[in-house]
Automatic annotation (TrEMBL):
<dbReference type="GO" id="GO:0003700">
    <property type="term" value="F:DNA-binding transcription factor activity"/>
</dbReference>
<dbReference type="Pfam" id="PF06445">
    <property type="entry name" value="GyrI-like"/>
</dbReference>
<feature type="domain" description="HTH merR-type">
    <location>
        <begin position="5"/>
        <end position="75"/>
    </location>
</feature>
<protein>
    <submittedName>
        <fullName>Effector-binding domain-containing protein</fullName>
    </submittedName>
</protein>
<dbReference type="InterPro" id="IPR047057">
    <property type="entry name" value="MerR_fam"/>
</dbReference>
<dbReference type="Pfam" id="PF00376">
    <property type="entry name" value="MerR"/>
</dbReference>
<dbReference type="InterPro" id="IPR010499">
    <property type="entry name" value="AraC_E-bd"/>
</dbReference>
<dbReference type="InterPro" id="IPR011256">
    <property type="entry name" value="Reg_factor_effector_dom_sf"/>
</dbReference>
<dbReference type="InterPro" id="IPR029442">
    <property type="entry name" value="GyrI-like"/>
</dbReference>
<dbReference type="GO" id="GO:0003677">
    <property type="term" value="F:DNA binding"/>
</dbReference>
<dbReference type="InterPro" id="IPR000551">
    <property type="entry name" value="MerR-type_HTH_dom"/>
</dbReference>
<dbReference type="InterPro" id="IPR009061">
    <property type="entry name" value="DNA-bd_dom_put_sf"/>
</dbReference>
<keyword id="KW-0238">DNA-binding</keyword>
Amino acid sequence: MSEDLLPIGRFARLCRLSVKQLRHYDDLGLLSPAWTDPSSGYRYYRSAQARDALMIGLLRSMDVPLPVVARVLSGDERNELKAARDRIEADIARRRRGLRLLDRVLAEGLPEHEVSVVREPARRVVAAREAATPATIPDATAACVSRLLPRMAPGVALIGLFPLDMEEEFDVRVTVEAADGDELLPGGPFASAVHVGPYEEIPLTVHGVLAWFGDHGHTPAGPVREVYLNDPATTPPEHLMTQVQIRVEDAP
């Protein structure tokens, strides 16, 4: 056995990791010991491995997923770290939106919404689609809108479509009505309420509409529709108007 090998306990202290963590990273193939005693199974590490071990500990302290850590160690450091940073930034933005919603609820209580049932016609539309997670809905929606801008016409509203049941990953769609559209947006009866205020607060109105379903014993059907009634480029956030619609599945 080489004299520059450190037993796992000493190496763990050097790298500010636990022995249990080092064993786990070895099992994953993320950081293997330089030598394992075949008779005792005891692990030994070289001092030069400390840099990788410290990088693993640092990235894990920032909740960077282990598969990303592995790719960083394999050499694609800049791209992977930038992607990890973007994910953390998106999570911070999502949490800030959540804090603003919570502040509003604390100040005003749960908002009451006037909900009415409207019958929407079927519409032929052009749609843009983007993969999203709950944290990236705003960015995915914005990407869809940018692709539809060339199809916009005066007086025609964009309609965002979002799943009723949020999963870890899903598609966000934004549509615009067009005579030559290649998709048909179904019509039918919808519970509808108008949201006034920033887009990030629309979930409050969505919950208000869903509460109406519970109060009246109806069954909601997705996707949730958001009809954007004015232009965010020229309208202050507090004056933005969005019609929230959820189809009433069991309406007569």
